[in-house]
Write a structure and sequence with these properties.
This protein is an alpha/beta fold and 212 residues long. Helices cover 55% and strands 14% of the residues. Helix 2 packs antiparallel against helix 8.
C-alpha cells in the first residue's frame, strides 16, 4: 500500500496501466460531539479533498465506492447528507468530473449486519451476547466479501477508484495483488487519532480517581 505524500513523480508514472484504489477513512462527528472534535473533522475533510486532487496524478477517478450506498444516483446519498455532508459533496464533485457511483452494499446483508450490531448493545446475558455476536460476525464477513467482489468486478484494468469507508472495515479487506492501494491520510488524521487517545486516557484517569 502507498501512503499519499510519500510518492515521488517517477513512482506515480509507474502505476500507469494498473488498477488503483484511493482509500479515504470515513470520519464524522456525532450530533453532540465537542466543538474541538468537530473542527478537527472539518479540517480533515478539507485536507482529504486537497490530497484526492493530488493523488489523481496517478489516474483520474472513474469509479466511486462508498459504504452504505446500495443504489445508483445522487439520491442514494441523501442519507449521508444527514450524517456527514462532506461525503456527498466529494462524491457529487467526482461524478461531475466523470466518475460513476457504484452500488456498493447488498441491502439484505447490510440490514441484518446492522440489526445484529444494534442487538449487541442491548443484550445482558453472556449466552445471548455470544449467540448474537456469532450472527453479527457472520454477516460482517458476508458484507466484506460482497464489498470486495463489487470492487474487483467494477474496477477495470488501468482505471482508478475512490473508496470511502470506515478505516477498521477497509483494513479487513483482502485486495487482489493487481490493485494498487493508496491510503489518503492527511496530517489531521493523526490529530484525530491523538484526540481519541487523550480522551480515553482522561476518562481512564477519572475512573481511577473515583475508585480510589
Amino acid at each position: 500500500m502507498n501512503e499519499l505524500g510519500k510518492i515521488e513523480r517517477p513512482d506515480i508514472e509507474s502505476f500507469a496501466g494498473r488498477r488503483k484504489l484511493y482509500c479515504v477513512a470515513n470520519i464524522y462527528a456525532i450530533e453532540d460531539a465537542p466543538d474541538d472534535f468537530r473542527n478537527l473533522v472539518g479540517k480533515y475533510w478539507d485536507e482529504v479533498v486537497s490530497q484526492i486532487d493530488k493523488v489523481e496524478a496517478a489516474g483520474k477517478i472513474k469509479k466511486i465506492f462508498c459504504e452504505i450506498v446500495s443504489q445508483k444516483g445522487e439520491e442514494s446519498l441523501d442519507m449521508w447528507a444527514k450524517i456527514n455532508e462532506r461525503v456527498p459533496e466529494i462524491i457529487k464533485k467526482k461524478m461531475r468530473d466523470g466518475g460513476e457511483l457504484v452500488p456498493f452494499e447488498d441491502e439484505e446483508i447490510l440490514g441484518q449486519y446492522t440489526d445484529w450490531g444494534n442487538c449487541l448493545r442491548v443484550v445482558f446475558t453472556r449466552q445471548v451476547f455470544t449467540k448474537v455476536l456469532e450472527f453479527y460476525n457472520e454477516f460482517g464477513e458476508k458484507r466484506l466479501q460482497h464489498i470486495m467482489t463489487i470492487i474487483d468486478s467494477n474496477l477495470p484494468e488501468a482505471e482508478a477508484g475512490l473508496l470511502i469507508m470506515k478505516d477498521e472495515d477497509r483494513a479487513r479487506l483482502q485486495f487482489p495483488a493487481d490493485i494498487e492501494v493508496f491510503l489518503i491520510t492527511p496530517p489531521s488524521y493523526d490529530d484525530i487519532v491523538r484526540w481519541f487517545r487523550e480522551r480515553f486516557r482522561n476518562r481512564s484517569n477519572e475512573k481511577d480517581e473515583s475508585a480510589s
